[in-house]
Design goal:
The protein is α+β, with helices and mostly antiparallel strands. It has a single domain, classed as VC0802-like (2-Layer Sandwich), CATH 3.30.2130. It has two helices and eight strands, in the order E-E-E-E-E-H-E-E-H-E. Strands 1, 2, 3, 4, 5, 6, 7 and 8 form an eight-stranded mixed beta sheet that branches. The longest helix has 11 residues. The radius of gyration is 15 Å and the shape is globular. InterPro entries: A9CJY8-like_N, ACT-like_dom_sf, CASTOR_ACT_dom, CASTOR_mTORC1, UCP008459. Pfam families: A9CJY8-like_N (PF21631), ACT_7 (PF13840).
Length: 128
């Protein structure tokens, strides 16, 4: 049996990807959990956080699950995100990616998560 390429952890909760106006102040509900991501650009304020904390009137794509690549990953590693996204794209699985200093996070729709995990395991990724 060949060694696994990388280990990924499937987080249990469901998350949402929200879009707020670029002038918006970061809302209190955005940072209630261990995992959240906030990105501000000249066009928008984008927030990824627990789905249950997002107000219903917020522009949001709900129903995402997170696969965390266990790290930390060395900056010299090449093609991790490209490899994972290609594998999932071949199965028609859309992703939303977030990178941090230490590692990468792959968001997949909850409806696709089982297929994503099976696909990654078949390609020698370990998913816990």
């Amino acid at each position: 049996m060949q060694k696994e390429i990388l280990t990924m952890k499937l987080l249990e909760e469901k998350y949402g990807v929200c879009r707020l106006e670029k002038e918006a102040i970061i809302p209190e509900w955005a940072s209630r959990d261990e995992f959240f991501s906030i990105t501000k650009t000249s066009d928008e304020l984008s927030i990824v956080c627990l789905e249950r904390d997002i107000p219903m009137d917020t522009v949001c794509e709900r129903g995402w699950r997170i696969l965390k690549i266990e790290g930390p990953l060395d900056f010299s590693l090449i093609g991790i995100m490209a490899s994972i996204s290609s594998i999932l794209a071949q199965k028609g699985i859309s992703i939303f990616a977030i990178s941090t200093y230490d590692t990468d996070y792959i968001l997949v729709k909850n409806t696709d998560v089982d297929n994503a995990v099976e696909t990654l395991v078949s390609e020698r990724y370990k998913v816990i």
